[in-house]
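Case study 2.
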Amino acid sequence: MISTKRAVETIHQQQDAPELKPLYMEALTLVERLHRRLLDVIKDEFDRSGRSDVNSIQALLLFNIGDAELTAGELRSRGYYLGSNVSYNLKKLVEMGFIHHQRSRMDRRSVRVSLTESGQEIASIVAGVYDRHMKSIEQVGGIAIDDFQMLNRALQRLDRFWTDQILYRL
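Prediction:
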């Protein structure tokens, strides 16, 4: 009797609540759109300064490397880049002189990368964009610290959910 009562309550709650599918699909669309928009914002910054030597993906990659010395695998896992994109862009950035690369002393199959001075310059341009945004996002964008805390918690839970789907084949 109690389980039937709970089932009926759950059905009524689901009927009263907004349907999940359109909200989930909108969230997926927004996540994709926001990533593309971030790349557009970075591209716009480089266009305004007359820099066409790197694209927005490469600039973001340089920013994410920062002061670290990483492998391509670490960039994939930390920066969520696709494997072929990382390899291609790293090769290009090495050729253009934005990245140093050297074989790892521990594992000769592994290549470690770090930024050259010109790579650090690109990374600092991206950091400058982010700094400008932080100064005005609350006033102009209407997004407060509490909003970001709630958004980040929800995105972390979504990330954990998707990770569990892969790890545990749910």
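The mean pLDDT is 88.
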